[in-house]
Amino acid sequence: MIIKCPECGHQVSDRARTCPSCGVDIAGKVTRCPDCGEFIFKDDHECPNCHCSINASAQEPEAIGPDNQQNTLSNPNAPVVPNNPNIDVPQPPKKKSRKVFWSALIIGFVLALIIVLLGIYYVQKTQRENEIRAYENALMSSEPAVLQNFLDMYIEAPVAHRDSIKVHLQALMKIDRDWDNARTSLSKKALQLFIDRNPDNVHVREARMMIDSLDFESARMLNSMESYKKYMEEHEQGYYYDEAKSEYDRLEQEMVRAAQMKAEQDSIKAAEEAAAAATTVVE
After folding, report:
1. What is the pTM of this model?
2. Contact between residue 138 and residue 168 where contact means Cβ atoms under 8 Å apart
3. Strand partners of residue 3
4. d(CA 273, CA 267)
């Protein structure tokens, strides 16, 4: 019978004394593994193929050689091995070895690791995209609270982003301080200076309203046609334009009435003087 040499794996007759390829002893030295059916040496304590432990006390040596027929007769359950080397002997089905188990375990671990790494990658990618959007929104914002919120939320943002936001925040805080100073000063000059320096600031509209109010108060304190006219020329869309126009018209009517009264008085005085002169001439 042709078998596979347990040492080198080359085909050899079970009746050969030694393997012609590697020289190891064959006749009477080889048996089958009770687990996977591979040919192994009788002296092996473990099957090289399936790593099954060979218990010498429980193992029934299955000598491959001249006395094989005797072992077969004494053990009716043993597989019949024909002596004809040209007949292939069907091998019993092999069980899954530990090597297959460990290979499957390693493959599963690698796949799980890949999934975890992909998950980490996508999470980090999403965080980067969110940070970039928040950074761009903060740069376009004029609210210090928005910039401070970015600094609080994205502590691990790129240094360049955080430094840029800090500079922008400091500039906004300085503008807020300038506005507080201009607003509390109640000075037209200070308010106009704030507008000129920060034309796009959210407080510009309020500053212009304050200037409008200050100019009207000044015109009302002077209470003259010239002061109201100056206010209307400088604030054509002013909140107090109608009131200033009303005061201007009132003063103009008073001036007209005063002129008419003066003219009447001058006429009466002239008439009286003429009458007096005529009386003197008659006398």
Report:
1. 0.48
2. yes
3. 12
4. 10
Q: Are the C-beta atoms of residues 131 and 150 closer than 8 Å to each other?
A: no
DSSP string, the chain: -EEE-TTT--EEETT-SB-TTT--B-TTTEEE-TTT--EEETT-SB-TTT--B--TTT------STTHHHHHHH-TTSPP--S-TTSPPPPPPPPPPHHHHHHHHHHHHHHHHHHHHHHHHHHHHHHHHHHHHHHHHHHH---HHHHHHHHHH-TTS-HHHHHHHHHHHHHHHHHHHHHHHHHHHT-HHHHHHHHHH-TTSTTHHHHHHHHHHHHHHHHHHHTSHHHHHHHHHH-TT-TTHHHHHHHHHHHHHHHHHHHHHHHHHHHHHHHHHHHHHHHHHH-
pLDDT digits (tens, 9 = 90+) for 53-108: 775 444 444 444 444 444 444 444 545 444 544 445 555 555 556 778 888 889 99
Q: Phi/psi of residue 51, each to 5°?
A: 60, 25
For 41, phi and psi rounded to 5 degrees?
-80, 145
The distance from CA 269 to its chain's CA centroid, rounded to whole angstroms, is 93
Other CB atoms closer than 10 Å to residue 92's CB: what's the count? 13
Q: Give 86-89's long-range contacts (Cβ < 8 A, gap of 24+).
A: 89/1
Query: What gap in Å lies between CA 18 and CA 171, rounded to an integer?
Result: 94
